[in-house]
Amino acid sequence: MVSKLRLGVIVVDPLPVVRAALALMIDDRPDMDVLEEVGTADEALEAIRRIRRSHVGVLVSLGLEGEHDSYWLIRTIRDQFPSLSILACGANADPLSISRALFSGADGFVDKSSDPVEFLQSLRRGASGEMVLAGPPTEWMGAIAEGIERRRLVETVLTDREREVLQVAAEGLTARQIASRLGVRERTVTTHLGRIYSKLGVGTRVAAIRLAADAGLVSVGMPE
């Protein structure tokens, strides 16, 4: 019978070779077990629902893409399984990606290029409730904190519809085109945009989109 003191880990990474390597490293530790190795967010949730034990951590690669990407998975786990620890990991993550993962609900971040001992210790620390940042250079700390605050500002002051309008606007569409896409009147779109500018303290669409993009809330597709 497995001791409850052992940390059970679910490894989530889109690359099979990386998953296997992480699993081998974790399983080699006497105080850890790999419970599942999965490649998508949906598979991760299915795995979590199957598990019946305490002291479980989820290692989430920031390489998951699509509608159910890494950030969606982190937020969903945090909302549905609040007792689990979540550690984000990545090989080429920037301050924005890290701050977005932390804001979404991750207990920390560890770089895949970290020393294996530090990597494993980060898993333990995250599972114990400690905030973990292993790998990012010290000079990134300010940018990571700023990114969290910027995202909190944008996400808390804008309604779901306003964020939807801003995301479509980021594609470079006119107010009329946005209205057609969303099935509303053009005047409704211009009203939403005016409220967005006021709430974010900006005067133009470009400034609003740039602020939201810096917070990781929209993907920019419009030219400068």
Structural features, described:
The chain has 224 residues and is of the alpha/beta class. It contains 10 helices and 6 strands, in the order E-H-E-H-E-H-E-H-E-H-E-H-H-H-H-H. A 6-stranded parallel beta sheet has the order 2-1-3-4-5-6, with helices on both faces. Strand 3 (56-61), helix 3 and strand 4 form a beta-alpha-beta unit. Helix 8 packs across helix 9. The longest helix is centred in the middle third of the chain and has 17 residues, at 141-157. The model has no long low-confidence stretch (mean pLDDT 87).
Task: Please outline what is shown here.
By secondary structure, the chain is of the alpha/beta class. Helix content is 51%, strand content 14%.
Keyword list:
single chain; 224 residues; alpha/beta; 6-stranded parallel sheet; 10 helices; 6 strands; 51% helix; elongated
